[in-house]
């Protein structure tokens, strides 16, 4: 039985956590990175150096590996830039080439990473197959377009396909330009930390749970979009206070009186009926447990940097 999976974005924030989850689920992981990474365990993990924007690289890679499964996470998500970046067009094109090559190499099951940015945010509560799709950013538009092409292509090619719509993910390895790492780094360093729009409500899921959910989705035969989220509302103010309490520095936390003026919604929460009810995936981490691991990660990292 072919249990080979091609994992793109394997050195990224979510991807690096997917490696262990996939191996523990019995997959043989072929991890793709644009950087050269030395192989550690050739029995269950092989790293491949490839440029996914190079069609010849992709064709050679798929011809050599011939994976039965594809978990496609790779995309440009540079904080502050990716929402409207032209690079989204490049990733859309490259993802389509990857999908075609996967099918032509005999692939059977594909799961790709989508985003809550595909939804019409005016509804706030997002449910697959019910909440309208109306992305407000180029990133969301490209993700939504890829999902639609994936559905039709899978039907025509006779393969199995699912789409994981990611909400807010946090945990070790997150980009320092994101909210949680920036707050932790400032507070643990004894610096003031300012949080704007503290009234806004978001849906946060720990990165190891996100990786576990993607792995479970890949291993299943569930089709179509599935929200990758906790289903638990959390205001940014409450989130900030939890972080400040971990650092023991509430005195350095400031909730800005002036609110940010941008297009982001005040309330964004996922319905997790498909994830929990159909996929039967249970979250392994509470918010407190996930925040504790995240805080310790950044604390140790800061201590190491000071050595």
CATH topology value of the largest domain: Rossmann fold
Extended strand count: 14
How would you characterize the largest beta sheet?
7 strands, parallel
Task: Write out the strand line-up for the largest beta sheet, numbering strands in chain order.
Answer: 3-2-1-4-5-7-11
CATH class of the largest domain: Alpha Beta
Based on secondary structure, the structural category is alpha/beta
Radius of gyration based on Cα positions: 19 Å
Distance between the termini: 49 Å
DSSP helix fraction: 25-40%
Q: How do the SSEs run, as a string of H and E?
A: EHEEHEHEEHEEHEEHEEHEEHH
CATH superfamily of the largest domain: NAD(P)-binding Rossmann-like Domain
What's the CATH architecture of the largest domain?
Answer: 3-Layer(aba) Sandwich
Any low-confidence stretches, pLDDT <50, length ≥5? none
Share in β-strands: 15-25%
* Domain count: 2
What does this structure look like?
This protein is an alpha/beta fold. The protein folds into two domains: 4-168 and 204-228, NAD(P)-binding Rossmann-like Domain (Rossmann fold, 3-Layer(aba) Sandwich); 170-202 and 232-274 and 286-306, Alpha-Beta Complex (UDP-galactose 4-epimerase, domain 1), CATH 3.90.25. It contains nine helices and 14 strands. A seven-stranded parallel sheet has the order 3-2-1-4-5-7-11, with helices on both faces. The protein has a three-stranded mixed sheet with strand order 8-10-12. Helix 1 links the parallel strand 1 (4-8) and strand 2. Helix 2 runs parallel beside helix 3. The chain is globular, with a radius of gyration of 19 Å. The model has no long low-confidence stretch (mean pLDDT 95).
